[in-house]
Amino acid sequence: MTAFPTPPSLGRLPKLHVYVDETGDRGFSDKSKAKSPFFAMTAVIVPEEEEWAVKVAVGGLQGMVHSGPPQEAHKPLHWVEHFKAKHPERRRRAALTLARMQDVMVIHVIADKGTMQDDWAMSKSKEVFYNFTTRLLLERVALAAKGWPGGRRLAIVRLGMVKHMDHSTSESHLDWVRGGNVETYNVPWGLIKWPPTWESTQRHGIQLADLHAGLLGTALMGDPQDMDCARNLLACRHQLRRSPTGKLLGWGVKVIGTDAFLLKRAWWPEWDTP
User: Fold this and answer.
1) Closest to 149 in 3D by CA, of 47, 251, 271
2) Architecture of the domain made up of 8-272
3) How many other C-beta atoms can be found within 10 angstroms of the C-beta atom of residue 30?
């Protein structure tokens, strides 16, 4: 039994389905930093009444990329496998499909490994790195549930499983955070159904989060002065969580490290514009 059961009054709230996946890697070796100078986690928040659109979007994209036997038509989508750079038309169609989904909200937490060297714990432990990034993401999910248009909602969070990782340690860490052992500045943790769960890519929403994370990762791997690498990411910028005044940093995008990792990019001003 969870240590933080949802009170009936919150359990009766309308629901948000939240799907989380990642891009980049958590390694700090020279090889890892050269391959991926960042690690990022993406949350896609879907109101329960729009959950049908997740299945329609994923099913349509599966039909586009799978041309083999009928039994392969429902094989889970993976950005790195099905949306390679040699298929720019697939990437564009995926971005447009995601962008057309209504009432969806997206949140990214991006870690710039180049400006995290002084954080010994995160640079030495992939688990600590993952858990801290997850915490920052879920804080923003809880705040989004509190401020959801039309009134508070209860968020049901499902994260993509990570290979070779014991997610029970992640759950324990999040329990520790929610138990008040670290200051989270009035984050309404009660608006997340506890505990979050880790699931395979068989779930359509996890595939959707993988695609959003893939758009982000492709933009971040491009040359900072290249606009084209972010063309597909920019197509979905209207879905980013923002402050009431339209602010993006700290709301729909959180940087671990220095903000310059994003601000130096040619496409940042357009991404930042509501």
Assistant:
1) 47
2) 2-Layer Sandwich (3.30)
3) 8
